[in-house]
Design a protein that fits this description.
Number of helices: 2
Strand content: 35-45%
Radius of gyration: 19 Å
Largest sheet: 4 strands, antiparallel
Structural class: alpha+beta
Strand order of the largest sheet: 1-4-3-2
Number of strands: 4
């Protein structure tokens, strides 16, 4: 299973409220959707996707793009998706992971430009507080 040529086709981003209005807590929802699968060759399929980071009443970031999926089952997956709008879990997981790995870093830069929180949890560094239990997390040097 191979994914190549991931490219973005459109970027739409909006901030709905003024930067001076600061809500207490913002929930960020991520969504990755496959919108079209079309067969290119026997072992290649072109997959159109959409990624959305929704900030509720604060704003949203939407990216659309495509990628090339290469595998012996590409024709079968394309046919199945066009009939049922479903694909095998392993393939779906691989495709959505590739979409997220491409779109989330792009969305971080867009969020910064709009004054929105980054669509990823940033690590929190706590120094000098030994009374709390150590928590597993990213290592900070």
């Amino acid at each position: 299973m191979k994914i190549r040529n991931i490219q973005l086709k459109s970027i739409e981003a909006r901030r709905y409220i003024d930067r001076n209005e600061r809500p207490k807590q913002v929930r960020i929802d991520h969504n990755s959707t496959v919108t079209l699968i079309s067969e290119v060759k026997d072992n290649e399929a072109l997959i159109d996707f959409q990624y959305t980071a929704s900030y509720g009443p604060v704003g949203m970031i939407k990216l659309e793009g495509s990628l090339l999926y290469e595998n012996n089952d590409a024709k079968k997956i394309s046919e199945e998706w066009n009939k049922t709008r479903k694909m095998p879990n392993q393939v779906a997981s691989h495709i959505h992971t590739a979409v997220m790995h491409t779109c989330v870093p792009e969305a971080v830069g867009i969020a910064k430009n709009l004054g929105l929180p980054p669509p990823i949890p940033l690590p929190q560094v706590r120094l000098g507080d030994s009374s709390k239990k150590a928590q597993a997390g990213p290592e900070v040097a």
